[in-house]
Amino acid sequence: MNVILLSFFLVLIIFLAVIESVRRGILETKYSLIWIITCVTLGILSSNSIFINTLANWLNVFYAPSLLFLFGLLFAIIMIFDLTRRISKMNKQLVAITQEHALLKKKYEDREYGK
User: Fold this and answer.
1) Reported pTM
2) C-alpha distances in Å from residue 15, one per residue of 22, 39, 62
3) Residue 2 belongs to what H/E stretch?
4) How many CB atoms lie within 10 A of CB 90?
5) What is the DSSP annotation of 20-43?
6) Residues 83, 11: Cα–Cα separation, whole Å
7) What angle do CA 60, 63, 66 make, to 5 degrees?
8) Given CA atoms 9, 10, 16, 19 in this order, what sign does their dihedral have?
9) Sign of dihedral through CA atoms 61, 10, 42, 86?
10) What is the pLDDT of residue 90?
């Protein structure tokens, strides 16, 4: 078994795990899109050795399967950036909700104790 065929089977297993996670509700659909795009792209690249070899020759890459590693690494960086962006957005929402809760709690305590 060569590395291109092995990578295709690994990408297929990850793709099926993503689809099953969405089906069971473990992973939301909006978060699964980047995974699906990554799996489809890597699956296309690793499904045909002629395509990856042609692309490697075009990009002057000596060892064609290293292109799969490069694309995998680039998609990992994209996913990390996307997750960081989402975490930052959720952090802003959490700060706003915490401040709103504190203001409402203060208003409630002022009414309760007659201040």
Assistant:
1) 0.68
2) 11, 6, 29
3) none
4) 10
5) HHHHHTSS-HHHHHHHHHHHHHHH
6) 20
7) 100
8) negative
9) negative
10) 96
Dump pLDDT digits (tens) for 2-53. 777 888 888 899 999 999 999 999 988 888 888 899 899 888 888 878 888 8
Nearest to 4, CA basis, from 40, 36, 51, 37: 51
Q: For the chain, what's the residue count?
A: 115
Q: Find all residues with CB under 8 Å of 28, minimum gap 6, and list them.
A: 22
Residue 31 has a pLDDT of 83
pLDDT value at position 1? 64
Helix, strand or coil for residue 77?
helix
Q: What distance in Å separates the CA atoms of residue 66 and residue 42, rounded to the nearest whole number?
A: 12
In the chain, alpha helices (H): 3-24, 29-47, 49-58, 65-112
